[in-house]
Design a protein that fits this description.
The structure holds two protein chains of two kinds. Chain A is α+β, with helices and mostly antiparallel strands. Helix content of chain A is 20%, strand content 18%. Chain A has helices at 17-27, 60-64, 91-95, 121-125, 141-148, and strands at residues 3-7, 38-42, 47-51, 70-72, 79-81, 102-104, 109-111, 131-135. In chain A, the strands form four sheets. Chain A has a two-stranded antiparallel sheet. In chain A, strands 2-3 form a two-stranded antiparallel ribbon. Chain A is globular and about 40 Å long. The model of chain A is unreliable at 150-169 (pLDDT under 50). By secondary structure, chain B is α/β, with parallel strands linked by helices. In chain B, strands 3-2-1-7-19 form a five-stranded parallel β-sheet. In chain B, strands 9-16-10-11-12 form a five-stranded parallel β-sheet. A five-stranded antiparallel β-sheet of chain B has the order 22-23-26-25-24, with helices on both faces. In chain B, helix 1 runs parallel beside helix 8 and helix 10 runs antiparallel to helix 11 (405-413). The relative contact order of chain B is 0.12. Classes of the chains: A alpha+beta, B alpha/beta.
């Protein structure tokens, strides 16, 4: 059973432990700027959203690569960048519609989440359970993607959120 | 069933692999006219700066890759297509029959109409063989003139500049990369290059390439009266589709091979993909030649699917997008980056830090973008455009701060912020 990262923004406190752990595990330094997982801040609403590669089936990055530098790890399902093969052309960074492949000026190559080979440090470092590593059918990814597809005008009639003058949030109990 | 694919670039290679996957029993032949294993032109700039060797440019690293798939490779040029007889003629005189034919012959550089352009020491930069010439000639102490500051010109600038040569770029448009960047960004890029000792002359036309008088064998004469002495002149003034061999075949060609939504040409059993194909554009719904890697791959997969399984797979149009590294400054453009009638835009410009983001909207949907100096999460611009995601209140926030693209995407697709209650 493949596992995947489950991201639950409502549990995130913005502590950035995941970014620190990712950066240390993958780059050897505590530098959130080098993390493959990012916590996005919504300061006016006091909310945070951790986000990284969902290892999507379409694998836009992998198919766009001109030199076979992105491959699937059969054990984890992760799409991994082979640093020795990547030439740094950055085509994958514009091909990934989720914005989760980034170019690193330091290495001249691209970096993305590789699930730490099946033991992701961000999940281990998260103190609130906002990032967990679970069976991949339990991540809510499908729901997320379905929501992402609702941009077409015809779908906007169902409870599309509208901005309110005063932001209120009622957790469904 | 015999499938023939002409052209061993990304579109052709992806197509033969897909054909093999879908038709395990059919005969598949890949015809390419360059004396190398299939390679990526995208990788040439990195070969020029010696970051990779020649093998690093190869599209598939396993030398037996095509053998293992039972794909026959023919190193020949196709000289003619006979659509009536369903056969192609190769440069060695043989003819090969096909059941389905894919034209994936890509593009070739346009030789500018300049007197003296045929002189010794004037090269395009397009093939691995061109790249070898440039590596040999671009050395410290030499003077190089690059004609054209488009995508190809810019992406090889680093190799030219790091060789220690004295580099001058001459561009006829009023800014660099005019097909990707607007005035503001195109001129920021010019300033970046000039700060790195590359002389950039925009709005300048080359009138002639003459024999030099002093130590330099060549002299490039510009329309403003200036003349630049050079050891090496590189032309990078655009490319055009490789379709001359289709003359008389009945396959209709405009900017490229005209195709329908199934990537089929005007002739049955003949398809086209990649830089040679005038395929559907996601943004306009019209048909144009995009000549970019992701589109070539998309075309290759779809065309192969339709060749192998009948017309099941409709091409909904590719997003035209590009990313470019010019002496370390990264620029990108997506879809309708120049905007659309009745749309509006947002822009942030920090000249000193070399950062620029321009977003183009129609209603509350992102339809185009261009960036300079931005490498984090740029792909989400494609995602926002291609999913036609309604931004609702986030349009206003993006107009205040166009760099918050990732936040906009997450807020509109996930249980964060004001829409948490509806998920």
């Amino acid at each position: 059973m493949l596992q995947a990262l489950k991201l639950e923004p409502e549990k995130c406190t913005g502590c950035l432990q995941c970014e620190m752990a990712c950066s240390y595990e993958n780059e050897g330094v505590f530098n959130p700027a080098k993390s493959r997982i990012k916590v996005f801040a919504f300061h006016d609403e006091g909310r945070f959203a951790p986000y990284t590669c969902t290892q999507c089936d379409q694998a836009w990055c992998m198919h766009a690569c001109p030199v076979e530098a992105i491959v699937v790890n059969a054990a984890t399902g992760a799409k991994e960048v082979l640093e020795s093969v990547c030439v740094g052309c950055k085509v994958c960074t514009i091909a990934c519609p989720f914005g989760t492949v980034n170019y690193s000026h330091d290495s001249g190559k691209v970096i993305k989440c590789d699930l730490c080979g099946g033991d992701p440090w961000c999940a281990k470092a998260c103190p609130t359970g906002a990032i967990t590593y679970v069976a991949s059918d339990d991540t809510g990814l499908e729901r997320m993607r379905a929501w992402a597809q609702q941009g077409l005008p015809s779908a906007a009639s169902f409870a599309a959120p509208t901005e309110k003058a005063v932001q209120t949030y009622n957790r469904a109990s | 069933m015999q499938h023939i694919v002409i052209g061993a670039g990304p579109a052709g290679v992806v197509a033969v692999e897909q054909l093999r996957k879908l038709n395990p029993e059919s005969a598949i032949t890949l015809v390419g006219d360059e004396p190398e294993p299939p390679y990526s032109r995208m990788a040439i700039p990195y070969y020029l700066i010696k970051q990779i060797d020649e093998q690093g440019t190869h599209l598939r690293k396993d030398a037996d890759h095509f053998d293992k798939l039972g794909i026959q490779i023919q190193q020949q040029q196709v000289t003619a297509v006979d659509a009536g007889a369903k056969s192609v003629t190769l440069s060695n005189g043989t003819t090969m029959p096909y059941d389905n034919l894919l034209i994936a012959t890509g593009a070739r550089p346009v030789t500018p109409m300049i007197p003296g352009v045929e002189s010794e020491g004037v090269y395009p930069c397009w093939t691995l063989s061109d790249a070898r010439n440039i590596v040999r000639l671009a050395q410290s102490g030499k003077a190089i003139v690059l004609i054209g500051a488009g995508f190809i010109g810019c992406i090889i600038l680093e190799a030219l500049a790091t060789s220690g040569a004295d580099v001058t770029v001459v561009e006829v448009e009023d800014r660099m990369v005019s097909r990707m960047l607007n005035d503001t960004a195109g001129n920021m890029l010019k300033q970046w290059c000039q700060e790195r000792n590359v002389n950039v002359l925009t709005a300048t036309k080359v009138e002639a390439i003459e024999r030099g008088s002093g130590d330099r064998p060549l002299r490039v004469v510009c329309d403003n009266g200036n003349a630049i002495d050079a050891d090496l002149v590189i032309t990078a003034t655009g490319v055009r589709s490789n379709s001359d061999f289709l003359n008389g075949s009945g396959v209709n060609v405009d900017q490229g091979v005209l195709v329908n939504e199934y990537l089929q040409s005007s002739v049955e059993h003949v398809y086209a993909a990649g830089d040679v194909a005038q395929g559907k554009d996601f943004s306009t719904g019209g048909f144009n030649v995009q000549a970019i890697q992701p589109t070539a791959v998309e075309h290759g997969r779809i065309a192969a699917h339709n060749m192998a399984k009948g017309h099941q797979h409709r091409h909904r149009g590719s997003v035209n997008m590009n990313v470019l590294d010019t002496l370390g400054l990264i620029t990108s453009s997506f879809a309708l980056w120049m905007g659309a009638d009745g749309g509006d835009s947002a822009e942030v410009c920090e000249r000193e830090r070399y950062r620029y983001v321009n977003l183009q909207f129609k209603d509350d949907v992102l339809i185009g973008a261009s960036t300079l100096g931005l490498t984090e999460h740029v792909g989400v611009l494609r995602g926002l455009i291609e999913s036609k995601l309604r931004l609702n209140g986030w349009k206003k926030k993006l107009q205040q701060d166009p760099t918050r693209i990732m936040e906009a995407y997450l807020a509109c697709t996930q249980a964060v912020g004001h829409n948490a209650h509806v998920l």
